[in-house]
Amino acid sequence: MIIGIIGSGAMGAGIAQVAATAGHTVRLLDQTEAALARAQQSIQANLRKLAEKGKLTGAAVEAAVARVQPTRDYLDFSDCGLVLEAIVENLDAKQQLFRQIESTVSAECVLASNTSSLSITSLAAACQHPERFIGIHFFNPAPLMQLVEVIPAVQTRPGLANEIKQLLHAWGKVPVLAQDTPGFIVNRVARPFYGEAIRLLEEGLADAATIDWATTELGGFRMGPFALMDFIGHDVNYRVTESVFTSFFYDPRYKPSFTQKRLLEAGYLGRKSGRGFYNYQEGAPPPEP
Ligand code: NAI
């Protein structure tokens, strides 16, 4: 089956790598050439690292890299069996995208979104054939994280969720079925993790490095909340919080923070822009708890 992926940022590139390594031809589309070039470079670099560690042969790496075909043209999705989007976390943008691509894919093609928080049912509702629509939510970095949430919309045809779960098993993932509620499972549980950490910071009780140090060294978390938000990207993370907050009818438990909003406004998006809660620019002193 040929897989189409729209959006070649952190998630789209990672998912393309997973599908190509599993043997699929992948048509990877982005609105910018620069993003496509970055994605190809990162896929190549990641796979070559695996070869250096002896986890893949050199031939397998080159074959997987060659299976990822960059494109700017929706018509290249005409022979895809599954098209998954990983563009900006915005309902209008995603709905508009699905309206556009539905006429260019085959009748059998499954359409999916990697959204972290938006309603799968309202994305499906933008399609003429909502029964073929489903949420497939990977975690970052997609090649390393095993968990994938599979979220049927109200309109999704019976049986599709199981077909997607089987596909994900074949990709070496651990799929879990989630209901179509804001943030699904993990992103809902994670909201208070980020929110309380920012509140601690705002109240001046500890700085970011100390909170991260305490959660990782003492709490056993793999990453602290600030390092994790910087890794995810504040554009993505803030929009997810905003979406979960509004979708839960402004429940204060999920209220977004001004501190994070200001980072976003300043263009301090985290690792990807060189600055977030921490400074990743060359020569910057490492944070000390
Ligand atoms: P990103 O900002 O790294 O990449 C988004 C890409 O989409 C960019 O390359 C951009 O040029 C492209 N794009 C935007 N609009 C487009 C359009 N209309 N057509 C074609 N390409 C378009 O974002 P990231 O982090 O990859 O997130 C993408 C999606 O995945 C979002 O819905 C996000 O909520 C979700 N997600 C993000 C995670 C994360 O940790 N960053 C984890 C799991 C899901």
UniProtKB/TrEMBL annotation:
Span of domain 3-hydroxyacyl-CoA dehydrogenase C-terminal: 183-280
Top-level taxon of the source organism: Bacteria
Residues of the 3-hydroxyacyl-CoA dehydrogenase NAD binding domain: 3-180
A GO term, aspect molecular function: 3-hydroxybutyryl-CoA dehydrogenase activity
Keyword Metal-binding: no
Keywords in alphabetical order: Oxidoreductase
GO BP terms, alphabetized: fatty acid beta-oxidation
Full protein name: 3-hydroxybutyryl-CoA dehydrogenase
Residue range from the parent sequence: 1 to 289 of 392
